Each structure stands twice: as C-alpha cells, then as structure tokens.
Amino acid sequence: MDSINSNSFRLLASFILISSFFSPPCHGDDALFHHLQASHSLGINDVGRHGVIFLENGRSVVLQNADSEGNPSLTLAAKRTKRIDPLDHFKHYTGGWNISNRHYFASVGLTAAPLFVISALWFMGFGIYLLIICFHHCCSQRQHYAYAKNTDALFLSFLVLFTTATISMESVGCVVLYTGQGKFHISTTNTLNYIVNRSDTTVDNLKNVSYYLSTAKQLEVDKYFIAPDVQSNIDKIQIKINDSATFLDKKTNDNSDAIHYVLDSVQLALIIIAAVMLILALTGFFVSVLNLKLLVFILATIGWIIVAGTFILCGVFLLLHNATADTCVAMKEWVKNPTAHTALDDILPCVDNTTAQETLSESKDVTFQLVDVVNQFITNVSNQNLPPQAGPSVSYNQTGPLVPVLCNPYQPNKIPRDCKAGEVDFRNANQVWKNYVCEVSAGGICTTPGRLTPKFYNQMSIAVNVSTALYHYGPFLVDLQDCSFVRKTFTDITGEHCPGLRLYSEWIFIGLTLVSSAVLLSLIIWMLYTRPRNGKEYIRRYADMPSRDSLELPKGMQK
Predict the structure, then answer these.
(1) Which residues pair with 91 in a beta bridge?
(2) What is the H or E stretch that residue 247 is in?
(3) Do the Cβ atoms of 130 and 109 come closer than 8 Å?
(4) Which letter does DSSP use for residue 224 in this model?
(5) Range in 152-166, 407-421, 542-556 with the lowest mean pLDDT
(6) CA 409/CA 403 separation, integer angstroms
C-alpha cells in the first residue's frame, strides 16, 4: 500500500525522472576517428558520443548507493508537516516529508477533510430531499394553494436575481479554474521536462564516460597502448558506472509515460468539469423558468452527483497543493544539507562517494596513460631518424621538423600539471600535428617530408579526442562527491518551478470551490422555485370548475 501511495504522489507531483534510448556503438578506427574528429572540430561541448553536451561549469551525477554510511539522516519540512495523523489516534505526525510513509499521506489528506465532509453531507442531505420530493409527488394528493396574482412575478424575480448571481459566481469560478488548470499543466510539464532533461544528460554522461573508458582500453598508436592493470581497472569501474546509468534509465522509463498520461487526463477532466457545470447552470435556469418539472428533476439529480464529485475533487487539489508545498519546503531544506539521508532519496538518490572517487581517479589515470602512449610514439618513433633496416613500423622515411609532444594535464600521482614550452595541448594538438603528415606510398612509406603517416595521425587524433573527453568530464565527476546535480536540480525547482506549482494548484482549488458552490446554490434555487408552481398549476387547472354549492341537484335530493 505504501508503494502505491508513493507512486501516486510521484505521478501527481511529477518528480520522477525519464531517460533516453541510445544508439549502438560505432566500430572501426576510421568511423570512430571521423566521428570524434567531427565532434572535436565543433568544440568541446559537442564531443559526446551520443550528442551529449559537456557541462563546462560542472554537474554531478546521481548514482544509487544502497550502502553509504556516515551521513546523518534529516527530517525534512518537520514544522510544516506537523499535522494531526488519523492513523495514529489523532496524534501529531512528526516524521516530516516522506512519500514512503502512510502516516504522512494520512496527515496531509486530513487537511482536505472539511471538503470531503461537505461532499458527504451534500450527497446525503440533497439526496434525501430529492427522495422526499419524489415520494411526495407519487404518493401524496395535491393541495390547494392560494396565491396572490403578483406571487408568480415575485418568484420569477427572485429566480432571475439569484440565478444571475450564481451564474456570475460560476463564470468567475470557471475562468479561474480554466486559467489555473492551463497554467498548472504548463508549470507541471515544465518541471517534469526540466528533471527529464537533467536526467537524460546525467545518464548520457555516465554512458559516455563508460564508452570513452572502453574506447581508451582498445586504443593503440602503432604498438603502444595503455598498461594492462589500467585496462583491468577500466573493466571494474565500467560495471559500476553502467549499473548506475541502468538504474536511472529504468527508474525514469517506468514512470514517464504514466506521468504525462495523468497530467493530460487531469487537464481534460478539469476542462470538461468547467464546461459541464456552466452548461448545467444555464440549462437549469431556463427549464425552471419554463416549469419543465421532469427536466428540472433530472438536472437536479445530475447536478447533485456532479457537485458531490466536484467537492471531492476540490479536496484532492487541496491535498495536492499542500503536498506540493511540503515537497518544495523539503527540497529547500535538503539543499542546505545535501549529504544527509532523507526521503528525497526515493526521488533522486544521492551519490556514492566511493564510486565517484573511483570513476574520477580512473578517468585521470586513463587520460595520463593515453597521453603517455602518444608521447612514447612521438619520442621513440616519429621523431627518430632510424635506418630502413629497423623495419617499416619504426622507420618509414620520416623527415623534417620534430613533432611536438602532447601536454599531459596530470602528474604520475594524478595531481594537475602545467604545460611546458614546446608542448601542444588538447585544444590544438590535432591541428598542429596535421602539419607533420606526409604523403605515403602503397607500402606506407613517406614520399614527402613529414614525420606522421595518415594512419598514425588518425590513431593519435583518436587518442587525443578520447583524452580530451575524459579530461573535460573532470569537473562533472568531481561534483559526484557532493551531490551537486541533485542540489542544483532541487535549487532550480524550488526557485523557478515551485512558486508556479503552488500558485496554480491553489487557483484550481479556488475555481473548483466557486463552481461547486455556485451549482449547489443553483440547484437549491431551482427546487425552491419549482415546488410552489405545482400549487399554482393546480389553481390554474381547477379554478374555473363550479363549486359544490353551485351544482343543481335533482329534485328530491338534498345538498
């Protein structure tokens, strides 16, 4: 039951993530090179394999951590959620915001209890009144009512006056309801799309990190490649990264369609309610004026049920309004304590520091190794003037100026390193090295001055592009350790989306209340106006009949 309540709130509050589908990986050095080279030429923001934009200002990744320790727990929105709990002998609920706690749902649901009670009283009271009218009409004899001639005009005047007031009230309610539901739908959809986009980027970045690590493991420049122990570490960290990406991907895909379906259904239902209520009020006014008693009774019965249901819907939106406000307060408080374990972990789990540190460490190690592979080839092969007897793999008639080595951004101990004079960095390495490419014969021997064959240049460029991608994921991976992604997401939601969600859910509640109250008053007015006309109809029908005293009796009979 708790899971059902939790899922329902997630649908209504729209704080569930969604992830994208991904294309299969490319194979082959040439295809990989052209893809990476084209991406690199567009700038670092477009290097991602799946069209992912790099986050230059840094974001963190959400990784599921079921065993994280050492972080304190935090009760969110404790003051705001301190309400009476009907499931705990009407004591005050003290568990804070927690979508997995049935006592939280019971306490927030109790805030809408007055509207549910009004709906129940209306349903029973007006229903009994309709039954009494029905039995009275079917079982009782008509009574003779005497009215002054101006009584009908007086009743009609009151009907027009009160109906005009209720229709005006209902019109205002319909406008508020229609406007509120439209803005609420837009605001909720924008909030959902914001989280969806953030989640998509996160999942894509996780998969891209895994992809670039896998690519780095297979890369080689001539006969140089990264160390076997580093390749083994890549296999281990890939499992953790892929598990995290799969978790987010599955979590979001399981809920995204249902969220949009609920939002669209709620919008359609509110539009229909606003239209039906207004049509009902106008139709009821005209049929009551025309004294179409059967239609008045039918419309009253329909309105009786609709009003009861609308008051229930008012309660639901009041509950949703309060729950949304609770969520916004909870997010705002969590942002101040991002490492604490809270119920918000059910929506966006925070990061596993161990996995984050391992991923960051491995990306630095792989970047260092790839740069070292390229520099070993430059130093030991391309910049050497070896005789042809050394073999075509190391001697291919390379001549001309020496190729500059690639700047390694890290020391062997993985601390940052500044570039030295004569080194090229990730930004211009491919462009600079292109000036050292020679033309080759069918056997791969340089026929023009140059120290790099097109084959070696392509291999070096792929290594540079992969190293560039991993290096620029550095800030992204650093932020894994402090839940920056979750904190930034919740900060944006509380600052940009929560005000609209709270305001427009309140609009819907106010609009529904006005519409329900207006139709309720209209129903009462119709029934009060229709009842006296039954007596007047009796007078019209029997007023011209001769009285008993005026009848002449046959002779011999007495009156």
Answers:
(1) 85
(2) helix 228-253
(3) no
(4) B
(5) 542-556
(6) 19
- Token pair of 468 as six digits: 């560039």
Contacts of 533 (CB under 8 A, 6+ apart): 152, 155, 291, 293
Which 8-state DSSP code applies to residue 1? -
DSSP state of 23: P
**CA-CA distance, 479 to 113, in Å (whole number)?**
44
Question: CA 90, CA 319: separation in Å to the nearest integer?
Answer: 18
What are the tens digits of pLDDT across the range 446-470? 999 999 999 999 999 999 999 999 8
Q: How far is 382 from 222, CA to CA, in rounded Å?
A: 10
| Angle (CA) 96 61 325, round 5° | 30
**Least confident range of 27-36, 129-138, 300-309, 511-520:** 27-36
Backbone angles phi, psi at 83, to 5 degrees: -125, 170
What's the Cα-to-Cα distance from 250 to each of 16, 202, 401, 490, rounded to whole Å?
Answer: 11, 13, 54, 21
Question: For residue 472, which amino acid is it?
Answer: H
Least confident of 1-15, 108-122, 333-347, 430-444: 1-15
SS3 221: strand
- Beta-strand runs (E) in 10-89: 84-85
Task: Please state whether 68 falls in left (phi above 0), alpha (psi between -120 and 50) or beta.
Answer: beta
Tokens of 104: 């939280």
Q: How far apart are CA 455 and CA 461, in angstroms?
A: 10
Per-residue tokens: 269: 């239902």
Helix (H) or strand (E) holding 518: helix 498-542
Tallying the residues shown for the chain, one arrives at: 559
Secondary structure (3-state) at 443: coil
d(CA 515, CA 281): 10
Residue ranges of the alpha helices (H) in 337-445?
A: 353-377, 429-433
Helices (H), 82-150: 102-110, 113-139
d(CA 50, CA 56): 17
Question: How does pLDDT run across 241-295, given as a tens digit for each residue?
Answer: 888 778 777 766 666 666 777 778 888 888 888 888 888 888 888 887 777 878 8
Q: Rounded to an integer, what distance in angstroms lies between the CA atom of residue 287 and that of residue 268?
A: 28
